[in-house]
Amino acid sequence: MNTFNRMVVILILLGTIAGSALAVFVLLFASPFLATIFANLGATLNSPKALELRVELMVIALIFFVPSVVLLLFEVRRSEGNSIRISQVTGSDARLSTGAVLQSLRYYVDALPGVVRVKPQVMTRAKMIDVRLDVETTPDIDVRAKTEEIARTARGVVGEKLGLQLNRLSIHIHQTQYPRRKPASTEGATAPAPRPQPAPAKEPVVAASGPADVNTSPVENKNPLT
Question: Does CATH number 2.40.30.10 belong to domain 95-175?
Answer without folding.
Answer: no
